[in-house]
């Protein structure tokens, strides 16, 4: 008996009247009855074994999954829409293929909901748990491929209200409100806002049109571009750009390998240090309980710079400050341009020049006078 996908099977009972064993015609000979019944049971069993994840498969060469039937005469070919299910005995490595008996291998494709959508080859570890595939003759340029139905999209909950995207990117067209932690293995892009009460971990880039708010830590492997950020700590291996708001670190610190750019907002760190390549802020910079360390570029700050208890250190580059500089500990800079007031409770070390407010000239004269007094004291000893 042909498989259930064959045209000899009909949903209309009276049409299943082909000569046995392919049907049950009126007036069939008694000798054909058992043949037709056996053929029906064989076809039903083959369907059951394909539609349920019973077979355990170990991939050949890591990416070729071969489905073997008890009766190698069936199927005679791939049928559009037919389902195959199995249990993988190993994780996929990407660009997987699926083959039934000796039929030609076909690629396995997964539907991507990001990057414009469409079908793409599988990526590492998408073959896990119980796999369900459906043959689609229109895929792969019309030569046919298997569509990965389960797991459909590599997104899963972490069991405590969080979201885990283990193998791909996450794109949110609106707002994303997560009850727990958010972990994305690729990039995170949101046209709304991201609100995560726990930790936000993105090895790729974080791009959010709205606000990115977390009460836990933000760890970004690439660049951060958003409107407003509030976090416990921020670690970014790229740069941080906040387009229309501020950067607020409320409990830890900020360690940023690239540049920090805030075209219209403030940079505020409640507790901890901020370390960055360069800092550009059209608002003010305030580090309440730590220091500000600029390791390679310099700082351009339109507002004031306030560090009540920490240090201000600029390893290389200029510090251009339009507002007031208030540092509770020591200051170590290259060239400084300060057009506001200078208030330093600790030490000031400037390797270059200090320019700006008219009071600076008095400050320089006082330093010169102090040096002369010390020299005179040495001569009188």
What about the largest sheet? 21 strands, mixed
Overall radius of gyration: 34 Å
Give the strand content: 35-45%
Measured between the Cα atoms of the first and last residue, the distance is 118 Å
What's the total count of β strands?
A: 39
Assembly category: single chain
**Number of discrete helical segments:** 2
The level of helicity is: 10-25%
Mean pLDDT: 77
Poorly predicted spans: none
User: Number of domains in the coordinates?
Assistant: 3
Shape category: rod-shaped
Broad structural category: mainly beta
Explain what the structure shows.
The chain is mainly beta. It contains two helices and 39 strands. The protein has a 21-stranded mixed β-sheet that branches.
Short structural description:
This protein has 381 residues and is mainly β. 12% of the residues lie in helices and 38% in strands.
């Amino acid at each position: 008996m042909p498989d259930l996908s064959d045209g000899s099977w009909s949903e209309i009972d009276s049409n299943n009247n082909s000569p046995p064993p392919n049907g049950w015609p009126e007036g069939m000979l008694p000798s054909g009855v058992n043949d037709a019944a056996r053929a029906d049971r064989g076809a039903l069993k083959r369907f059951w074994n394909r539609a349920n994840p019973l077979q355990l498969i170990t991939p050949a060469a890591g990416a070729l999954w071969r489905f073997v039937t008890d009766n190698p005469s069936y199927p005679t070919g791939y049928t559009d829409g037919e389902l195959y299910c199995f249990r993988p005995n190993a994780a996929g490595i990407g660009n997987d293929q699926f083959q039934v008996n000796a039929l030609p291998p076909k690629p396995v494709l997964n539907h991507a909901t990001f990057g414009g959508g469409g079908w793409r080859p599988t990526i590492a570890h998408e073959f896990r748990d119980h796999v369900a595939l459906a043959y689609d003759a229109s895929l792969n340029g019309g030569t046919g491929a298997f569509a990965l139905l389960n797991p459909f999209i590599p997104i899963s909950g972490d069991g405590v209200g969080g979201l885990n995207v283990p193998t791909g990117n996450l794109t949110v067209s609106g707002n994303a409100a997560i009850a727990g932690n958010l972990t994305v293995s690729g990039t995170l892009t949101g046209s709304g806002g991201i609100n995560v009460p726990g930790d936000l971990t993105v090895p790729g880039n974080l791009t959010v049109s709205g606000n990115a708010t977390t009460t836990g830590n933000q760890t970004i492997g690439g660049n951060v571009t958003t409107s407003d950020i509030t976090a416990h700590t921020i670690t970014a291996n790229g740069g941080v750009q906040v387009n229309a708001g501020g950067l607020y670190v409320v409990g830890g610190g900020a360690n940023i390998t690239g540049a920090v750019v805030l075209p219209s907002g403030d940079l505020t760190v409640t507790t901890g240090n901020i370390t960055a390549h360069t800092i550009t802020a059209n608002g003010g910079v305030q580090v309440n309980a730590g220091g500000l360390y600029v390791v390679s570029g310099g700082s351009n700050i339109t507002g004031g710079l306030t560090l009540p208890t920490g240090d201000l250190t600029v390893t290389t580059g200029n510090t251009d400050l339009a507002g007031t500089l208030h540092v509770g500990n020591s200051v170590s800079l290259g060239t400084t341009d300060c057009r506001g007031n200078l208030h330093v409770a600790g030490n000031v070390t400037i390797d270059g020049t200090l320019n700006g407010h008219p009071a600076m000239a008095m400050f320089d004269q006082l330093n010169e006078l102090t040096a002369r007094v010390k020299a005179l004291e040495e001569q009188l000893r």
